[in-house]
Amino acid sequence: MKRLWYLVLFAAATAVGCGSDGPQALSGGDGDVQLSPPVMAQMEALIAEKAARTPAQRKIASSLLYAKSGRFDAQLAANASSGREIKSLSQVDPQGRVLVDIRGDMSAVGAQIETLGGSAVEVRSNGARAWMPLDAMEKLASEPAVKTIRPAYLASTRPVGKPSGGLKSLSGSRADRIAAVQAAEAAWDARQTSGLPPQTFVGATNAGSVVSEGDKAETADRARRFYGTDGTGVKVGVLSDSDDFSELAIATGDLPPNTTTVPGQDGRPGTGEGTAMMEIVHDLAPGADLFFATAFNGPERFAANIRALRFQYHCDIIIDDAIYFFESPYQDDIIAQAVDDVTADGAL
Questions:
Q1: Which of 94, 105, 166, 290 could form a disulfide with 210 if both were Cys (CB 3.0 to 4.6 A apart)?
Q2: In this structure, are residues 319 and 236 in contact, taking their beta carbons and an 8 Å threshold?
Q3: Residue 260: CA atoms inside 13 Å, Cβ hemisphere, count?
């Protein structure tokens, strides 16, 4: 176990323990890098500190405990001043609360989140995601029903490509997207009152005000003509960050009127990446029924929504563009297990 901790702490100790002359490491005679006595002393101190933690503290991720104690503040500040800044991946709200994932029996401790000054983002039977003050972590962890508290795993999305325009090509910050949507709404309203005919496309099997370049790139337009099919009778489930702007997309015909979002799983506020994905699917398969659920709010929710799209909404095809960096390369984690469940049931 001590050897494992040496490996885990090596990067942190050499980075945090850097002075103005760089990492405190020595070169051995055989060419191997050997840690200097100050770095070894830091590692031994961290191992001893971990062994001395209380039962409640052992349920809490080290990064949260160190953030509360400020143990490394001086070293991190010194690194930042020398241009070697280490940035925390934890999300912090304006009140200084940290976004955390809590695992445990929420029927027993769910109410404690608010009592201790936190704010729940989502509560499940076996866990919750919440904004929590650092000072409240140990109190919450002292509850027998709580198993672990760690910084929230955060998702990111893989961009869906560069379509030909409209909502599907929106990029930039949320404010930029909202401004673009407002401009699109104004242009749409102006066209409706101008007496001009609605925008149409040759072929008339595509959907909406703008057609994705993917329709040509994937030769879906040729497939529709050759096989005489448009996706009718197929249910497609989409997972991404959010379905922001989907109402406008329905109004412009870029999404079908029966587009369905799993209740409570719209992911808002977000970037609307899920809406962009659904618009592209609608261009390629305009007859398909579309369903959306967020892939954010934690791996557990991502996995639950994969299953919901299949077992509750009976989606034949499920797609996503989300990734969590905790995903294991060595064994199936909860997301991969959910994928196995739905494909075993016949989903693609």
A1: 166
A2: yes
A3: 15
Structure-token match 């996995």, residue found:
303
C-alpha 267: how far from chain center: 10
Q: What is the length of the chain?
A: 348
Determine the pLDDT at residue 158.
67
What pLDDT score does 336 carry? 94
pLDDT on residue 69: 78
The mean pLDDT values, 10 residues at a time, for the chain of 348 residues are: 42 46 53 82 89 95 87 64 66 93 95 95 93 96 96 80 44 64 62 50 53 88 90 97 94 94 94 93 95 94 97 98 86 94 98
Q: What is the predicted pLDDT for the residue at 78?
A: 64
Rounded (10°) CA dihedral 262, 268, 271, 274: 0
Instruction: Tell me the sheet residues that pair with 294.
Output: 240
Annotated domain spans of the chain: 57-62+88-152, 157-344
Judge contact between 177 and 271, C-beta under 8 A.
Answer: yes
Backbone angles phi, psi at 5, to 5 degrees: -65, -35
Distance between CA atoms of residues 115 and 10, nearest Å: 39
Residue 229: partners with Cβ closer than 8 Å, 6 or more residues away:
223, 287
Q: What is the pLDDT of residue 146?
A: 97
